[in-house]
Amino acid sequence: MLLKSSLILLLLLNTVIKDFRVITGIFVFSILLNIITNKNLKENIKKTKIFFLVYLMTCILNIFFAREGKIILSIPIDFSVFNISIKKLIYITEEGIIRGTLLFLRLSTFIMISWIVTYKKLLMNKNGKYQKIILIVTEMLPESLTLIRKKMKLKSFIKHILKELENKYQ
Prior knowledge:
- This protein is of the alpha+beta class and about 170 residues long.
- It folds into two domains: about 120 residues, no CATH class; about 45 residues, no CATH class.
- The protein contains seven helices and two strands.
- Strands 1-2 form a two-stranded antiparallel ribbon.
């Protein structure tokens, strides 16, 4: 019960607080909690490696495209498209670095807390069916991304996912 309460508290703090040091502390604490309690940590990292790369890319995009705050570095870029020369400045700001890093830390913390919830089977009481469905859908996400890239129609995409859920759930 104490673990459930502390995880709920961590999730709430992770969503509400905007202080960089507190979010970093929650991130480090969730890493330590995973190392101590989660025996499937290596397997979980292998499964979600792509997600962490996507989150890292969003962090980098936030760093380059945030316009508020103190400018740390400005990078001039010259390129041409159809014989039209374009000159642009890309700014790296302090606010962009903080915002991008906070986003990465928050999303990573959410994932690591969900690993603990899954491993400790904290949802297995009356919601055990839902936990199994959530695990199946999480495992299908990379496959879903490839189907989206193939520009599959929404109706057939949903049918495909429901068929996979039905096959794996039984």
